[in-house]
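Chapter review: from sequence to fold.
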Amino acid sequence: MNKNRTGICLAVLAAALYAINAPLSKLLLAHLPPTLTAGFLYLGAGLGMVVIASARRLRKVSRPEARLTKAELPFTLAMILLDIAAPVCLLFGLRATTAANASLLNNFEIAATAVIALAVFREAISPRLWAGILFVTLSCLLLSFEDLASLRFSYGSLLILLACVCWGFENNCTRKISSKDPLQIVLLKGIFSGLGSLVIGLCIGERVTVLWSVFAALGVGFVAYGLSIFFYVYAQRLLGAARTSAYYAIAPFIGVLLSFALFREAPPYTYFIALALMMVGAWLCSQDKPLFRKKMPPPDTGGDPPDH
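The token string follows.
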């Protein structure tokens, strides 16, 4: 399997794991306040990576992955701060809209990531990918209106779109350090973003009332954030930020199916129009071919291999 196919498989696997986030987080919000939920989700990702790192050490598995250095510090800090803001916006938005709607709106992350990749990070984007982004954006706009007659925006949808913009920036920051050890990246994202959200939640008066919900959030976080991000970083290394985000578009469709199964939500007719637009956009994005092929340099091992 060549690098392109490997990258696609990793991106789709990451998407499938992330798909459980919206419907299960919607359930968790009945027992945990939003900011604390975001904190425990990311903390679950970080703690999960600690377990994987410990298992590697016990098995004496050595991988030639480079560690982060001071040169990557600005991107690392930006990644952590954006990972505090994005899930908080998402979870507050989930309280004001349906889980199925939120799952589809998450696809706006494709458009945000691609535009930021082009405008800020100068990543090449093909006309086909632009066409896919246009369909995804139109779908998201349609989903963002509660009433097409009065053109009234949904408060929850806007918060989810804001989360997608934050993740768009975060995806590009992660891309800048994707040649480094993915396990270390996810561990840092999980522990520091999780602790940051927990501190903010406690400062604004949020409290845990049901203990089991904490462990449930940690478990969902390990799968939906930890393992998903772990595979996503590897995919970015092979495909780039914009293309990885495009293949990641499968996640909302899986999330929608789970939402229908869990909540029996009956969507309005506009939802199905948006779904059709989203499917066209996702297909165009998945069929995209890079404008040019550039060999990725082998990962810099930075001297001695890490001890995990």
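Two observations follow directly from the output. The two ends are 27 Å apart (CA to CA). Residues 291-308 have pLDDT under 50 and may be disordered.
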